[in-house]
Amino acid sequence: MQKKVTLLSEFGEFGLIEHITNNIKKINPETIYGIGDDAAVLDYSNKKILVTTDLLVEGIHFNLIYTPLKHLGYKSVVVNLSDIVAMNGTPKQITFSLAVSSKFSVEAIEDLYEGVRLACNHYGVDLIGGDTSSSLTGLLISVTAMGYANENEIVYRNGAKETDLICVSGDLGAAYMGLQLLEREKTVFSETSQVQPDLSGHDYILERQLKPEARVDIIKKLKEKGILPTSMIDISDGLSSELIHICKQSKTGCRIYTEKIPIDAETCKMANEFNLPPETAALNGGEDYELLFTIPLSDFEKIKLIKGISVIGNITNASEGLNLISPDGNFIQIMAQGWNAIK
Ligand code: ADP
Ligand code: MG
Fold first, then answer.
1. Spatial separation of the C-alpha atoms in residues 325 and 316, rounded to whole Å
2. Which pLDDT score, from 0 to 100, does residue 336 have?
3. Are strands 140-149 and 90-100 parallel, antiparallel or unpaired?
4. Is 271 helix (H, G, I), strand (E, B) or coil?
5. How far apart are CA 20 and CA 73, in angstroms?
6. Distance 212 CA to ligand 2 centre (A)
7. Ion ligand 2 residue ranges (Cβ < 5 Å)
8. Cβ atoms of residues 73 and 113 within 8 Å
């Protein structure tokens, strides 16, 4: 059966806004007023407010040939929530703005918003507004996320201290290998023949690329165990790039150990197919949205109790520089080769 296609022009701007935002109910008491007026109204009483924003451009940040719109909606929200989480904050609201070209149907935008709604429900976040415009070139998405933290619990990038342990959540490099796989199969996607790309057996890396999650669970567990990281960042551009941010802002050096970097077996397998050392995918690939953070050495016993966190090295004096130590004991200087939008 052919899917129904409604032209955007049939709805117009206001019709479309109403269509995609009707039956949105607010869930958080911090949201006083959401969609429907010139501005939303929020109340965070005595908490500090965190605000972050990201711009996603078709052809630069995502490719619609292999990205289902529902996943794109979900991911656009998640990458912003991840930034709030990386400050040790709790996300509460988002705004979602888009510019669409006429090649999109109302149903396509519905799919996109289905993903937005799923992410909002999953993370308990209110959609409180946005803006809608047309575009001559493709799809453009801008999301702003808001949340809160107690002042003494906000974790910046600049607080790492010598001897601190360096930790990462989950595993790294999978989202990058998922992207490599999708890029490789892209030609098959775009051909009109009956041949379907063979993506079977790669569920994990594909899900990591197409449907990442923000690690709210990790900051909850850290809190439960009484661990307050000294610095934290989410891994959007690859481990190397994020380590450089932390060390630069904290004015420190670091040592991390290759064999301690957590990498999933499926990531290793795909990296081997691409003749790429798996640690390169972890160091220089992006979009894992795991957390990289440092904790005082004295918290070592506590951190061992949390599943899904790896200690990968330690913070050193700035004079030592940033080093990756290979299994045979060689020191390799860490350099940023992460993803860069402005090239
Ligand atoms: P304005 O003229 O003040 O920009 P709009 O007509 O663009 O107002 O928007 C009306 C209401 O709908 C506002 O509350 C706005 O935040 C919300 N809104 C507009 N576009 C979107 C969107 N794409 N997603 C969610 N809310 C939206
Ligand atoms: Mg507007």
1. 13
2. 73
3. antiparallel
4. helix
5. 13
6. 29
7. 131
8. yes
For residue 327 the two structure tokens come to: 């299994």
Vertex 39: Cα angle to 37 and 42 (nearest 5): 115
Q: Kind and range of the H or E element at 131?
A: none
pLDDT at residue 13, rounded to an integer: 87
Residue-level pLDDT at 84: 98
Q: Kindly state the DSSP code that residue 162 receives in the 8-state scheme.
A: T
Residue 129 beta carbon below 6 angstroms from any ligand 1 atom: yes
Q: Check residue 288 and give its pLDDT.
A: 98
Predicted pLDDT of residue 269: 97
CA 321 to ligand 1 centroid distance, Å: 48
At position 248, the amino acid (one-letter code) is K
The 10s digit of each residue's pLDDT in 18-70 is 999 998 999 999 999 999 999 999 999 989 999 999 999 999 999 999 999 99
CA–CA gap between residue 2 and residue 280 (Å, rounded)? 43
- What local confidence, expressed as pLDDT, does residue 213 receive? 98
Low pLDDT (below 70) residues in the chain: 1-2, 189-197, 338-343
Which H/E stretch holds residue 167?
A: strand 165-169
By DSSP bridging, strand 132-134 and strand 90-100 are parallel
Dihedral, CA of residue 240, residue 243, residue 249 and residue 251, to nearest 10: -110
Looking up tokens 């990296």 gives: 271
Where would I find the H helices in the chain?
8-21, 69-85, 106-123, 174-190, 203-210, 216-224, 239-250, 265-273, 278-284, 300-303
Reading the block at residue 260, the tokens are 């301690």
Q: Are 290 and 215 in contact (CB under 8 A)?
A: yes
The four Cα atoms 178, 243, 228, 236 give a dihedral, to 10 degrees, of -30
Phi, psi of 218 (to 5 degrees): -70, -45
| pLDDT tens digits for range 257-296 | 999 999 999 999 999 999 999 999 999 999 999 999 999 9
Evaluate: CB of 163 within 6 angstroms of ligand 1. no
- For the CA of 95, the nearest atom of ligand 1: 25
Strand partners, 168: 292, 310
**Three-state DSSP class for 306?**
coil
